[in-house]
Specification:
The protein is about 55% helix and about 5% strand. The protein is mainly alpha-helical. The protein has a two-stranded antiparallel ribbon with strand order 1-2. Strand 1 and strand 2 form a beta hairpin. The longest helix has 19 residues. The radius of gyration is 23 Å and the shape is elongated.
């Protein structure tokens, strides 16, 4: 799993991702200098580190390198979310809390993603309706997750209600 990029690494990768083409250290430097004072050698070191970590590939172009992103920002973000989620001791509760923090725009993006993913999960031939995606997201954002307790649950075989034990 990837570790989170540092501030300067993220600033460099943001440009590489946004420009979506091979870039030189000089190009990144000139753009970064609009925001901060930074040396050529600093940017060169960061880009070399990103290459060593596998974030960018590079090709020789004359006396310089041209750097290209190995994956997208979306893939990076997804990997970070997956890493954080996998570290939770209660993944369902973590998702519910995460959904509760989402803005209206983020919920719309989630609904769009659900429209794409749900057919693949269910093996459906055509995408679900907007209502089905809205319902799936609504359930995910409004469901309550039972927190684990130290109390033993009732045995369903004896007819007892597992929540009350009666």
């Amino acid at each position: 799993m990837p570790r989170q990029l540092g501030d300067l690494e993220d600033a460099v990768m943001t440009r590489v991702w946004q420009w979506n083409r091979p870039v030189t250290v000089r190009e990144v430097l000139e753009d970064l200098q609009q925001e901060r004072s930074i040396a050529y050698t600093t940017v060169m070191t960061v880009m070399d580190n990103l290459h060593q970590k596998g974030w960018v590939r590079r090709e020789v172009d004359g006396r310089a390198y041209r750097y290209t992103a190995v994956s997208t920002r979306a893939a990076y973000s997804a990997a970070l979310m997956n890493e954080a989620w996998s570290r939770s001791d209660n993944p369902a509760a973590a998702l519910v809390a995460f959904f509760g923090m989402m803005s209206a725009e983020q919920r719309e993006a989630l609904k769009d993603a659900m429209r794409i993913v749900l057919p693949n999960l269910h093996g459906a031939a055509e995408p679900p309706s907007d209502e089905a995606a809205d319902e799936a997201v609504g359930e995910a954002t409004h469901e309550e997750v039972d927190e684990p307790t130290d109390e033993p649950a009732g045995d369903p075989a004896d007819g007892a209600d597992p929540k009350t034990g009666r």
